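Tutorial, part two.
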Amino acid sequence: MATIEKRTSADGEITYRVKIRLRGHPQESASFARITDAKQWAQKTESDIREGRYFKTAEAKRHTLAELIDRYVKEVLPRKAGKTKFGTNQTQQLNWWKDQLGAYLLSEVTHPRILEARSKLKVQPATANRYMAALSHTFTIAVREWGWMDDSPMRKIGKLKEPRGRVRFLSESECKRLLLTAQELEDKALYTVLVLALSTGARKGEILSLTWDDVDFKRERLIFQETKNGERRSVPLNGLPHAVLKEWQHTRSNTSDLVFPSLKDTPVRIDRPFADVIDKLGIDNFRFHDLRHTAASHFAMNGASLAEIAEILGHKTLQMVKRYAHMCDTHTSKVIERMNAKMFT
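Running the prediction step on this input gives:
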């Protein structure tokens, strides 16, 4: 008989786990986001097993990759992290896979076919790996939650080797010149954004999506809700950044909930004024995202450990911040020197 178990994850997401146990048959199970889907699957699968019509590969021969992607985009993407930009990128990537392999049944989407399709991607290895990751998670959901496949063909495919991450950062004097130039602008939005970027290492999207509810002047904290990995991140807001943001709050005339709103009550666009300031200073080959590298580099040079940098930037592992390891050499040398002094003298 079939049993349905309601499960609630740590982030509040509810799924329904179906288990079918019939004498003389191995247990079958699948998870669903809706109770109605769970009941329908349980009823049909139990009936098929009793009548000898059920095979684990049946679902893979019943659905195409296009059907899988359409359901994934409709049901899974809306609850995933990163909201607008993340969802848009994932949809674009999955639609590319649908154009390439969507007509195939899931049972026919083999790893050689996937590799052949990947070879048609005219992008950098890092971008190709993101396309593969989007498809991989789609298969994972098909296996673990919907019972459409026994296994993912992506398990047999490795990532493409990516070049070392680009680290371009401004010196302390260049940072001061950048802020002074932005401060001369009539609209102080860019200056305020730059101060927050350099003091927190936050991404442009994280800063521009801030609302005043995310700003805690009393506790001197900023809460980034719209992060790339989907987890809220709290960072200190003190000193000059605290004062600059407080002044921005008092001088602005817009009543929007957004900290940096446009006239249409959407996040303000700063690409053009930022590019103008960079050109005026004569700084070559520098993007807004490089301010994140700048902040992280100066954190490292001022004694922050890799773990501390990862926490500030919102990285779940130390892998992404190892690029700043050489800048921590002076700090780690002092740590070892202090330990040696205590232990050996």
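Residues 125-144 form the longest helix (20 residues). In part three we will examine how such features are distributed along the chain.
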